[in-house]
């Protein structure tokens, strides 16, 4: 059982060369050179071990299930060999070991069965204690080996749990990064939408104000044209009266006064028109200044959002 457990752990490492923390159906095919099974038989073994049907095997599912499978296979093989008068051979060993094996080989074989090389960097302390028990207290050697089995089994389970936690952590980090990217894209879309709405409202307001000024200017120009026409009519009347009789002098004087008043009105209207044009120029300059200020405000808002974006990216780096 110890040998099969150690071999199952080796098979898991062979299948999971990338260190994913789980074994897929394709990874299982790497055991073809290691086991006397065909591709179809390996497929059946994978389906049997994948009890939950999720398409992958955790270290616990793989090692436990494959150990039971191998134990069943070799128990069947031993029964067949005993029936045929042959001696069953343990797994891993390709030659029958005699009782006269040297201590070095026995200890190395024990460490291989336990998978100690994957856990310990230095086996000298364990080897010294094992040799001392073998020499001085041989009756305690089996108890010591059982203790080693439990210790290395727990260490292997802890390592498998660590791999599973690392895999889960990687998935959570990937999911969090995806969520941050989604939030970042939503924020960019919101910034773009608000910027377009802001510019659209500002443009519409400027166009409305410009139209109002143009209407006022057109009205002033029409009033001026009316005054000019009225002046021309009065001048024509004055010319006709001056060519008339002497009795019309008083009337002419009145017309001249009226003409002077009209000239004053014309000058006043011209002055008002000039003021209106100056006011239009001032308003146009003010509108241009307001447009520049709005552009600067949009730039400041964009810069603020960029700083917030940098802060989010730094938080993402810290979380990673």
Automatic annotation (TrEMBL):
Q: Quote the SUPFAM superfamilies the UniProt record gives.
A: EF-hand
Q: Does the keyword Isomerase apply?
A: no
Q: Which residue spans adopt a coiled-coil conformation according to this UniProt entry?
A: 141-293
Q: Which domain of life is it from?
A: Eukaryota
Entry GO MF terms: calcium ion binding
Q: SMART domains, alphabetically?
A: EFh
Pfam families with a match to the protein in the record: EF-hand_7
Q: Which GO terms describe its cellular component?
A: trans-Golgi network membrane
Q: Report domain EF-hand positions.
A: 37-72
Swiss-Prot/TrEMBL keywords: Calcium, Coiled coil, Metal-binding, Repeat
Q: Which PANTHER family match?
A: CALCIUM-BINDING PROTEIN 8 (PTHR46311:SF3), CALCIUM-BINDING PROTEIN 8-RELATED (PTHR46311)
- Name of the protein in its database record: EF-hand calcium-binding domain-containing protein 4B
């Amino acid at each position: 059982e110890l040998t099969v457990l150690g071999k199952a752990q080796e098979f898991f490492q062979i299948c999971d060369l990338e260190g994913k923390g789980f074994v897929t159906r394709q990874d299982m095919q790497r055991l073809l050179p290691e086991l006397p099974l065909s591709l179809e038989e390996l497929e059946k073994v994978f389906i049997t071990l994948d009890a939950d049907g999720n398409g992958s095997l955790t270290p616990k599912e793989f090692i436990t299930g494959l150990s039971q499978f191998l134990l069943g296979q070799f128990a069947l093989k031993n029964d067949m060999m005993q029936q045929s008068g042959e001696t069953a051979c343990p797994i891993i060993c390709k030659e029958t070991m005699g009782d006269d094996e040297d201590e070095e080989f026995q200890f190395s074989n024990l460490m291989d069965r336990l998978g100690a090389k994957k856990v310990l960097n230095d086996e000298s302390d364990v080897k010294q204690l094992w040799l001392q028990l073998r020499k001085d207290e041989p009756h305690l050697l089996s108890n010591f080996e059982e203790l080693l089995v439990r210790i290395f089994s727990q260490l292997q389970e802890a390592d498998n749990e660590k791999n599973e936690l690392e895999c889960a952590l990687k998935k959570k980090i990937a999911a969090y990064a995806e969520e941050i990217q989604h939030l970042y894209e939503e924020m960019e879309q919101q910034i773009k939408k608000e910027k377009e709405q802001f510019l659209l409202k500002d443009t519409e307001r400027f166009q409305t104000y410009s139209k109002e000024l143009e209407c006022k200017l057109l009205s002033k120009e029409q009033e001026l044209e009316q005054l000019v026409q009225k002046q021309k009519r009065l001048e024509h009347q004055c010319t006709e009266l001056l060519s008339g009789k002497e009795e019309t002098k008083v009337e002419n004087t009145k017309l001249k006064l009226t003409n002077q008043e009209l000239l004053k009105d014309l000058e006043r209207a011209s002055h008002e028109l000039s003021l209106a044009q100056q006011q239009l120029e001032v308003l146009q300059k003010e509108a241009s200044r307001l447009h520049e200020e709005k552009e600067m405000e949009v730039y400041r808002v964009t810069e603020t959002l960029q700083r917030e974006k940098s802060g989010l990216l730094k938080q993402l780096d810290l979380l990673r």
